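Handoff note, outgoing to incoming analyst
You'll be picking up this chain. Sequence as last confirmed:
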Amino acid sequence: SLSDSPVTLKILQNWVPRVSHYFDKEHYTYVGHQIVIQESIEHFGAVVWPGALALSQYLESNQEQFNLKDKKVLEIGAGTGLVSIVASILGAYVTATDLPEVLENLSYNISRNTQNMNMHKPEVRKLVWGEGLNEDFPVSSYHYDFILATDVVYYHAALDPLLATMVYFCKPGTVLLWANKFRFSTDYEFLEKLCYIFNTTILAEFPESNVKLLKATVREN
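Most recent structure output, in case you need it:
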């Protein structure tokens, strides 16, 4: 049920004014670390969307409720890698995944922001939603405590494979945290499907940005 009243939040301006003259780098501060993100204008996945800011902020502020230390975390549609970097700083074993064409920029951002730090080194892997899941991530060897997803619902043709991917990785005990800017009726249709399959709660809403942050877990029989 979505009836529990979610907390209403505002996305804080967590980025630092740019000192550099390059248009392609954004500077953020989370969990006491400055994070420099290189964006690319070629791909959807290479821009920091508001859902990533919302989830990064929420993870930073709710470390007791969602303790990522030494937990196995999978980010699907990791994009620029901001959320994966924050999860790493919070102590998680992170696997950041996205489409092949996004991986180079994703790997660059993750390695530059996590090198020389005392943390589990994040892994970057290709994951095309709904494709080759059994081959690339066999159930026998992969179990995640958390699945993170931000602004993954925008490309309407990809929604069924996205849902199938969420279902595949969400085992009993796994927590899915999904933050999304709600723009279209298809976004709400996807949310309905999610609620039908999973126990789903809205944890927080960011009304100024139209972002909702949801928690979903497998229904236990």
